[in-house]
Design goal:
Largest sheet: 6 strands, mixed
Structural class: alpha/beta
Order of helices and strands: HHEEEEHEEEEHEHEEHEHEEHHHHEEHH
Strand order of the largest sheet: 12-11-13-16-14-15
Shape: globular
Helix content: 25-40%
Number of helices: 13
Radius of gyration: 29 Å
Number of strands: 16
Distance between the termini: 99 Å
Strand content: 15-25%
Length: about 450
């Protein structure tokens, strides 16, 4: 048996026992090595590329069929951002990303793409100004697969307080925010960043919003105080919100309504409006709250367009915060859906102190909720004149975006975008005007019945 199965020597003689053993070991070693020869890794497939330029920051998103790692660094003279992505090869989709850079992008001048080394693609962003970049990944959620996100923030964060003061108040108007701005300009200070949470190597934190300054004493009596209304168009950027059957996106229509309402507010001698989002980009929920507090808003109005699984659902709704649970199963479902906006829009959880954000969102007071209910009732009384109400009273649930502790806050679901008839109304410019006017009248009714206190001067 052994003689028949073993190879013979060149002269026909049987091999020695030692030679046979050496050949067997050699064959066995070959069999052991073969299975572990590495195969070439299959490159990930890019499903979509998107850019979201805005004054606050520019976001670049690569959607892929698998999760990838990336490393980034910045260069100066000229300013550049370099991102190396592992597991990619050059493709038409990456070339498409180059064409998506808009000339009016505040941060990106141009983009170059190259195969830096096998299985590694390098993106080089030529910048218009120095940036504090964030590069992070998102797991699949909603209609998205894996996403690699590049957020390009300015090194010095924009202050919403300065942006809102473009409207000059008259000589007979007490404007505490103008005095704050004057104080900032006379005594500029360097912002002290909070302690940084752990983050991946090479990643820089996004600039935090400046800390709200203490307000100076109020002006002399007899002057009517300027009121600041924070308008919050829901969703934006990567998060389209609900989408109607004809393709109307919630994020688009609510921004149009908010802009119309802002124009009405700004036309009043003692009011001005501030938009938490003035273009198509994503703003995390807690940042929306921070922005409203930064500008010392007297009222916060979040504007949305509802959706339901059945297209027959219709009507407008107004929501306030609840600390004791939702007033209905639908209110709870609605709050859960809206609170999931951060997951869909894409929040980098490694760059902000989650505990601080949680504390901010847990400080809401009973007085704030009571005032919010008054605002909500005033809104319902006006909205019912132009559209059916889904609920005749203000509903309550744990909406994260309504948790400013010291600002009356309401969330308005203008209509059901999932209802074809109401979607057509929302698309109509005339109906958008009617909704804005109804909310404007509701705001005026609330402040007429509840004159604002000079609370800015009472801040200690």
């Amino acid at each position: 048996m052994v003689e028949r199965d073993c190879p013979t020597a060149p002269d026909g003689a049987l091999p020695s026992a030692g030679a046979t053993r050496r050949r067997l070991i050699s064959v066995a070693a070959t069999l052991l090595v073969l299975p572990v020869v590495p195969r070439l890794a299959q490159a990930a497939t890019i499903l979509a590329v998107r850019t979201w330029p805005a004054d606050e920051y520019t976001r670049v998103t690569l959607e892929l069929d698998s999760e990838l790692k990336a490393e980034q660094f910045t260069l100066e003279n000229p300013h550049r951002l370099v991102v190396d992505i592992e597991g990619l090869t050059l493709s038409a989709a990456l070339n498409d990303l180059v064409s998506k850079v808009r000339p009016d992008d505040p941060y990106i001048q141009s983009l170059r793409v190259a195969q830096n080394r096998p299985n590694v693609v390098r993106l080089v962003f030529d910048l218009k100004q120095p940036v504090a970049p964030q590069v992070f990944t998102l797991k699949p959620v909603a209609d998205y697969q894996y996403r690699l996100v590049l957020d390009l923030y300015p090194k010095v964060a924009q202050d919403p307080l300065i942006a809102i003061l473009n409207k000059q108040s008259g000589p007979d108007v007490d404007d505490p925010l103008a005095r704050i701005l004057e104080d900032i300009q006379r005594n500029p200070v360097t912002r002290a960043d909070p302690p940084e949470p752990p983050r991946v190597r090479g990643q820089q934190p996004a600039p935090a919003l400046p800390t709200p300054p203490k307000a100076p004493p109020t002006a002399s009596r007899g002057k009517q105080r300027m009121l600041t209304i924070a308008l919050d168009p829901g969703h934006g950027g990567e998060d389209p919100g609900a989408i109607g059957s004809s393709g109307l996106r919630e994020k688009d229509v609510v921004l149009r309504i908010a802009r119309r309402l802002k124009a009405l507010i700004d036309s009043q001698p003692y009011m001005r409006a501030y938009l938490t989002r003035d273009d198509d980009y994503f703003v995390p929920l807690h940042v929306r709250v921070q922005k409203a507090r930064r500008v010392h808003a007297d009222l916060f109005v979040s504007i949305h367009a509802d959706a339901w699984v059945k297209p027959s659902a219709n009507g407008s709704s107004v929501f306030a915060l609840s600390q004791r649970g939702a007033t209905s199963a639908q209110a709870r479902w609605m709050a859960d859906k809206e609170n999931a906006a951060d997951l869909i829009g894409g929040v980098n959880l490694g760059t902000h102190d989650r505990q601080v954000a949680k504390v901010l969102l847990d400080l809401s007071t009973t007085a704030q909720i009571n005032d919010s209910l008054k605002v909500g009732n005033a809104f319902l009384d006006e909205i019912k004149k132009i559209n059916r109400l889904h609920k005749n009273s203000v509903e309550q649930a744990g909406f994260a975006v309504l948790k400013a502790p010291d600002i009356p806050s309401v969330l308005v679901e203008t209509a059901f975008i999932s209802n074809p008839q109401e979607e057509a109304l929302l698309r109509s410019a005339s109906h958008q005007d009617k909704l804005a006017q109804a909310m404007m009248t509701g705001i005026q009714r609330y402040f007429t019945a509840n004159p604002p206190l000079a609370r800015l001067g009472d801040v200690s």
